[in-house]
Design brief:
Elements (H helix, E strand, L loop, with lengths): L3 H4 L18 E6 L2 E6 L8 E6 L2 E4 L3 H9 L4 H8 L33 H11 L1 E2 L1 E4 L2 E4 L16 E4 L7 E2 L5 E6 L2 E6 L10 E2 L8 H12 L6 H9 L4 H11 L8 H24 L3 H4 L1 H11 L5 H24 L13 H14 L3 H13 L3 H18 L4 H27 L9 H18 L4 H7 L4 H7 L21 E5 L11 E5 L10 H9 L1
Parallel strand pairs: 9-12
Antiparallel strand pairs: 1-2, 3-11, 4-8, 5-8, 6-7, 10-11, 13-14
Amino acid sequence: RADPDALLGSPKTFVHLPITAYSEPVTAIMGSCGRGLAVKRDVAIGDLLFVDKAWLVGNYEDLLEATMKQIEDCSDLQLHRLMELYDGTNGAKPLVEKLLPGRVARNVPLEHPELDEERMQRILRFNAITRWSLVDGELSSTEVKGDRNEGSSRTGHAAGLWSLASFVNHSCRPNVSFSFLGDVLTCRATRNLKAGDELFVGYVRLDRPLAFRRKELSATFDFHCTCHRCILEEALVPDGSQYLQQIEQLTQVPSKDKSFPWIEAWSSLYRQIEYDISLSIKQRGKELDEDLSLANSLDALFETCWTPEHDQQREERLKHQEELRNNIARLQGRAKPVGFEHPGREDVYSMQLQRLLCGSYSSVAMESARLWREVGSHANSARDCFWVCQQLEELCPATCLHAHWAGEWATRSWKHFMREERLNISKKLPASPMPSELLRAASYARRSFGQCFGPRLWLPQAQHLGWPIQLVAASLREEVAAVKPPPRKPKQTRPRRMKCYKAASICWNDARHMEVEMEEVNRPTLKGEEAMSEFSA
C-alpha cells in the first residue's frame, strides 16, 4: 500500500516502511564462492527466504556521504554488521550466525574496526544493490533525480545497502530473486531447493550474451564469471557477432520503412538464432558426455527440472525418441539400434539446454512481441511472448521479468480471442468457449505472479494489466491432466429388437406394441489377402 508502483515494477523513489528483518530459513556458510547463504530446510518455488531492511537508500553517488554521516549515530551492532560486508580483502573471514540481520545477538563480542572513507567506498562498490524495475518489459535501473556522472553504470540510479542480501553470491542462472517494497528487500526461491543448497542471484542482466555479462561483472565487481551457464555458453553457442550486427541493422531502420516485413524480420532473426543453437548442440552432442566440465555443468543445472510438468515432458520426449530409434532399427532388420545403449545427456537435456542458451538473446523475441503488439497483431505477439516465457523458465523463473511476460502472454491471447469473437458476432455465429491455450496462459500468469510477489498479490498485478473479470476467472481454473478412462468390457451381442406400434394413442398406457426380432445380417467377409491389401492401401 505504501509503494504500489514498486510492486508493479515501475520507477519510483524509495518509501521507508516500518518492517523488521526476517532470516529464519537461511544460514551462513563458506561455499565455493566464499562467504554465502544457504537454506536450512527444503523450500518450494515462491517460498519467502528472508526480508531485509535497508541500512541506507538513496542516489548511488550520494551513498558514501550519507553513510559516513549515519555511522556517527548508529549502534555498535549496526556498525559491526556494516563492517562485516565484503570489501575486497575479507572474503575468507567466516560470518557469525548470531550477527546476521533478523537474529538475536546475545553474548557475542563485537569488534571495533577503524573507519576510513576508502574502505567504505570499497564496501559500497561491492555491496550496493541497484533497484531493478520494468519499463515496457525491459529491465532497467530505477532512476532518481540527481546529477548523472558517466563514470559509473549505476550513477544516477536508486541504490541501497542491504546487509543480508549482500552475502548472496552471483550466478548467471540464479535460484532466488529479489523484489523491492519501498526500502524493504524480499528474497524468494525461484526453484525447489533442498536443505544445504546455496543461494545465488544475478548481479547483472541475465538476458544478455556471455561477453556482455562478463564485461559488466569484471568492471563492477572485479571477477571473471565461470558459472555452469557461462561454461556451456562458451563451448556451445556460436559466434554471436553476426547476430549483434543484424540487431544493429534492424534498430537503425528509418521510421518510414518500419512495416510488417520489418517486424517479421525480428521474429525470423530469433528463429534463426534458435536453429543455430540447436544445430550446435546436435553436432557436439558427444562432447556433452565426454567433456568432464560440460557433463558436470549439465548435471548441476538440469538434473532436476523446474516443475513436475517439465519432468513429465522430459520423460515423454525420451520415450518418443526411444520409439523412433527402435522403429528405425526394425526397418533396418536389427533387434536394437546400433551404437545406442542408453540416452545420453544430449537426449535428456537438449530442450532445457537450448532454452537456456537462447535466453541470452531473448531480447530479440521481446522486441518482436512489443512490435507486434503496437501494430495490433495480438496472435503474433502472444506467440512471441510464449517464446520469451520458455526462455525465462530456464534463465530466471519466478522473477518480475518472468511474471511480466507471462501476463503479456495472457493479455495478448485474450485480445486475440475477443477479436475473433467480434468477428463471429458480426457474422451472426454462436459464441465459442475460451480456447485451451487462453486458459493455459491465464493460469500460467497467475502462478508466475504468485511465485514472484506472493500468492496474495497476483490480483493487483492483473488489475494493473487491465484484465477483465472473465480473464481473472479463467486464471483460477487449474489445468487438470487428462486421465484415460478404464477400458470397458466388451458387451455381449444380443439380437436387435425394434418396437413397432400398430396403432397410435394419446395416452402412453393405451399404446399397444409388439416386439419383432431382427435377424443378424451375415455380411460377407473379405479373404485374408484382400483384407491385408485394403489395410495397406
